[in-house]
Amino acid sequence: MYFRGILAVHLKSKNVIPKHYEHIVVVSICVFVMGFAWSWGPLGWLIPSEIYPLETRTAGFFFTVSMNMICTFIIAQAFRTMLCHLRSGIFFFAVWIVVMGTFAYVFLPETK
Q1: Any idea where the Major facilitator superfamily (MFS) profile domain is (predicted)?
Q2: Which one of 46, 60, 68, 106 counts the least CB within 10 Å of its CB?
Q3: Taking 60 as the threshold, does the pLDDT of residue 112 lie above it?
Q4: What is the rounded CA–CA span in Å between residue 105 and residue 71?
Q5: For the segment 32-70, what is each residue's pLDDT rounded down to a tens digit?
């Protein structure tokens, strides 16, 4: 996205983003979060409802939600340290969206 480039350019030299770019970065991040919430976000609830059989659905949802919360906690704890070391490079991990899309397209045909 556009804000990654702005962060990469301005955070390397002075660690300060010019005022006229601040609003662009905040709006870009908000648009990214909205896009995730409308596209990939619900898949954590949709895919388990389709792949677990009725007999094990409750246990499957328990495992799915538990792992989701644990992984979210780990990411939240590691994000700040990663941001300090990788700076704007942390946002280039968005390549995983392509990997997730390919996985869903190839291995989860019922969710197309």
Answers
A1: 1-112
A2: 106
A3: no
A4: 23
A5: 788 888 877 888 888 888 888 999 999 999 999 999 899
State percent of the chain over pLDDT 90.
Answer: 12
Give the model's pLDDT for residue 1: 53
Q: How many residues does the chain have?
A: 112
The rounded distance, in Å, linking the Cα atoms of 51 and 6 is 41
CA distance 83 to 2: 18
d(CA 108, CA 112): 7
Helix, strand, or coil here: 102? helix
Distance of CA 60 to the CA centre of its chain: 22
Cα-Cα end-to-end distance for the chain: 25
Query: CB of 60 within 8 A of CB of 52?
Result: yes
Residue linked to tokens 């939600």:
65
